[in-house]
Amino acid sequence: MEYGESIHVEEYTDIHSKWLYYKPSVKSKESLAFLQGALNATADGIVVIDCKENICIYNCKFIEMWEIDEKFLIARDQCQLLTLMLKQLKNPEEYIAREKELYIYPTKESYDVFELKDGRFIERYSKPQRFDNNIVGRVLSFRDITKQKQSEKKMANLERLNLVGEMAAGIGHEVRNPMTTIRGFLQMLINKKECIKYWDYYKLMIEELDRANGIITEFLSLAKDKIICRHLKNINDIINSLVPLIEADAIISNKYIKLELAPIPELYLDEAEIRQLILNIVRNGLEAMLPGGYLTIKTYLEKDEIVLAIIDQGAGIVPEVLDKISAPFFTTKDQGTGLGLSICYTIAAHHNAVVDVETSGQGTTFFIRFPRIEVPVLCAN
DSSP letters along 16-45, please? Predict the structure, then answer.
């Protein structure tokens, strides 16, 4: 609806409402234009519906948020608008149920959060509009809270990791001590002549103890209060030191490693932790690819961040798995512990870094974003 064109004169009253349409004067047109400008300046998407289910007013943010052609809004048909919105919702039945409830109870206010098929989360606040103490319509405001939801999910993951870390610190060493004793006796017995016939059994028991010890080592890596030894290091130097090991892993499975390392400043890093983070993500990427694929390791500066990107050419991560990859003990591998990526997220948190993931059918990229620091320069006298 363009402000400046006439609005039809009509006054009607029914059991629910009274709505007044009028032909505005020049002053009224200016007020309406001012109102429309104010609505367009808001960060929320707003649409007003009257009691006859006609669209009365809306703003630009509403059009942008729902990606709706304005011609459907100019037609003022709420049913057509609702159909277009429902097509974008992940659970349209939930939205319909809330609409029916508001139709039955027109005086009710409503606050809801809906997920869209494209992964966005939209918060909706619905409030009845009154005129002369009568309900004449309903004001709907919509806000994109996707970033807030993502932050909440990251915080929940970190809380879970901290809980697991506290458990690890509490019981890990106590479990290791008896295991070390058992392994020592097995090594002693395996070399005795009378035990030679049981050599295979002893060897298997020692291997299983070593495997359990490896799991506990990973478990302890999640410890919240773990001592971190940080020194000024360049991530590029750490990557270059790992290249022979990474290339050996790649050659075994007939895959290739590509480095794109840009000049970057040094950071205060725990080298052992950063090595573990890189190896965990690289090995996951190699496992995700078919023979002949390339895995790329990149570093670069982006605004106030130093970015480490590890890019594979695998089949991507499905949404239901992507939501859980940072959770401890979640794994899609038959022999996996579910601690590899959890440890990566913990290491990133230790360094005030953030892990972002982009995935598609052509591959997955892990971005580890480290905040850039100003290293003090010592001047000689």
Answer: S-EEEE----HHHHHHHHHHHHHHHTSSSE
